[in-house]
Amino acid sequence: MTGSQAGPKIPRGLLLGFLLVIGLLLALAGIGIAYLNAMNNTITRIVEEDNERAHLTAEMYIAARERALQLHAILQQGDPFARDELVPEFYRLAGQFREARQRLLAMRLTPGDQALLEQQGKLTAQGSALQDEVLGLALADRREDAERLLLSQAIPLQDQVTLQLRRLLDHQVESAHNAAREAQAQYRLALGLMLGSASVAVLLAAAIAFVVITQQTRLLAMLRESEREARILLENIPVPVWFKDPEAHIAWANVPFARIAGRALADIAGKQESDLWGRVEGLKSGLEDQQAMAAGNTMARSRTLPSADGELSLVISRTPIANANGGWKGILCVANDLTEMERMTNLLVAANLELQAQKTALDEHAIVSITDTQGVITYVNDKFCTISQYPRETLVGQNHNIINSGFHPDGFFADMWRTISAGRVWHGEVCNRNRDGGLYWVDSTIVPFLDAAEVPYQYVAIRTDITARKSLEASLQDSNVELQWHVEERTQALSQALQQLEADIDERKRSQDQLKQQYLQLEALHRQLQDAQGQLLQSEKLASIGQLAAGVAHEINNPIGYVHSNLGTLENYIRDLFKIIAAYESAEVIAGADPTLCAEVAAIKKQLDLAYLKEDIPVLMGESKEGITRVRKIVQDLKDFSRLDSSPDWQTADLQQGLDSTLNIVQNEIKYRADVVKEYGDIPEIECLPSQLNQVFMNLLVNAAHAIEGPRGTITLRTGRRGDDEVWVEVADTGHGIPEDKRDRIFDPFFTTKAVGKGTGLGLSLAYGIVQKHHGRFELESEVGKGTTFRVILPIVHTPEGVAAGVAPATSHST
């Protein structure tokens, strides 16, 4: 027998069954892997995309709220420079909002998200336009219009925008939960397939189980990370958020909720809202929870809740969260605090009232009108209607040409329009015509209001009636024309005279020189008259007072002299009488006179209290002599102050003696207001006009006394020497001080900081002229509320030419 024996063959059906099982296992493995991949993609989307969308939505919500708060802060800011510093932050928030929205639109969105974003985009466009309009009104100082627009339109529209954003955030949270549930379903299906495959092939099942467990671990880690990120997001949202389980117990809350509840976070877990707000508020909350779960969507209600700082006005949104079984896992609550909005509203109302009062004050003082960029009148006040004699209904909608008088050339108004169209303020005097044809003049200031692009969008004109002043100017101009005619007539006469003197060239030159000199003298005299015009009244008054003081001093000197002499003689007589009385008393004791006579003498002594007279009469004589001496000193001070009995020429004088004399003269003005402290230094006598410097000292002392109001103050007199050529006298007070904006005008004639009726404004102007005549200067140091120091610096030796007087406010530098 030949040939080989064939081996056993594998049954074809078994092979096919094995291959079928292998194919089935591979198919199940492929399906399981596909489901795992889908679950991985879903979780990745939850972790990366859904969280990113929620983050961008929260960023848009915060930016929208902060932009509204920033706009309100700009409205509340009264300082225009500080207000301008807040504007960039307002625009930065708008850019932050737009950037977050663009990034959100670039992501995958559900049709519901897209619909909410489209609706929010329309509302945001309207709200941004309104907010920009409010900002423009605020920057144009039209705070009343800005606040009205903000309250009536911008804030309600902004609330709709934030409501859409809250709905979008809630929708995204719901989408994340749905995606998580889908991932869980996919996970269960994949796990079932893997378990089925494991029953057919242990090794393959073990391998698949290993892969599944590995993927599960990673996915669970990602889910935990997603949950942690979501919790961090909710904890950092600046609005109160809390979650309640189906039994209405608070399972979780963030820090803002703990703050409004007035509890620590550890004390809130497990509590019900009735434990925080009371039984009544808890019942209301439970009813709202049931309504939200019955409706199956978010419900918002306004609530007023008690707190440690008072009542809170809130809008609470309640969103039911479903579980995997189709029931409700709990309620997610979000609250928005309206307390700050109500406070801002109250502030806006107060600011509106203040702006209305300011507008009323402006309308009472000035002629006001507002026009658009084409010159069409949009507003006029009552004074505009009164002076133009047109009713408001006729003026509004008309161009200013209605009151054009035709007085000014076309170039006048063309220049005005070029100025205000460029965004600059224009000022000028305009002649207008009223309804009856009469002319009137106004001093006009036109202020352009600019938009964000620095382009004018309206003009506000503030005018003052100067018709009376222009009439006076016209009269003066007529007088000048008449004077010019006389001058021309005189010039013609001089010309004829010059023609007659042409033969004598030398005489003509001499006449011309004389005329030129006379012209210069007249010009100098004109300037002197202008300078002396303001000081003449005070100078004459002071001169009269000085002359009167000198006359009174001279007249009083004679009777004081003989009274003083007679008091000395009387004192000697009384001394002699006391000696005689003492001698009589001694003789009475020695002679032993008649007892009856002695008794009578003793009775007379007792009746007249001779011992007391001996003590009191010398005291009375001393006081009388002291009084006469003081009167003589006052009279001498009057003479020293006036110096009318001395030479009017420059002479050597002691400034400290002049200060003491002047202080004695004005003592009545000072003694009830301040104490005088003298801090004299060692200074030499100087060449000066003593009586005029005494007037300077008198003005400074009286002003120092008048500056001290309320509690008794101190006036300090100081003297000293500066270098080898100058001395200084200083008068310092503890009065109310001089504001910085008034220091440059204190030496102007008729300018005074005193109340009406308490000063003429000529004292310091006269003092300035006297110090200038001495080639000296003033230095001024003053601080409001603490006092003022005037320092007069004078040369020791008078020279015909010197440095012009000046004043250095707030520093030691003089000009």
Jot down its keywords.
alpha+beta, 22 helices, 815 residues, 5-stranded antiparallel beta sheet, disordered N terminus
Explain the overall architecture:
The protein is α+β, with helices and mostly antiparallel strands and 815 residues long. It is built from 22 helices and 17 strands. The chain has a five-stranded antiparallel β-sheet with strand order 2-1-5-4-3. It has a five-stranded antiparallel β-sheet with strand order 7-6-10-9-8, sandwiched between helices. The protein has a five-stranded mixed β-sheet with strand order 12-14-15-17-16. Strand 16 and strand 17 form a beta hairpin. Helix 1 (12-76) packs antiparallel against helix 4 (143-200) and helix 1 (12-76) packs parallel to helix 5.
What is the rounded Rg? Answer: 51 Å
Contiguous helical run count: 22
Termini Cα gap = 148 Å
Given as residue ranges, the uncertain stretches (5+ residues, pLDDT < 50) are 1-10, 533-538, 802-815
Q: What's the pLDDT, averaged over the residues?
A: 76
Query: How can the largest sheet be summarized?
Result: 5 strands, antiparallel
Question: Within the largest sheet, what's the order of strands?
Answer: 2-1-5-4-3
Q: Would you report the number of β strands?
A: 17
**Global geometry:** elongated
Helix percent reads 55-70%
Strand content: 15-25%
Instruction: Name the structural class.
Output: alpha+beta
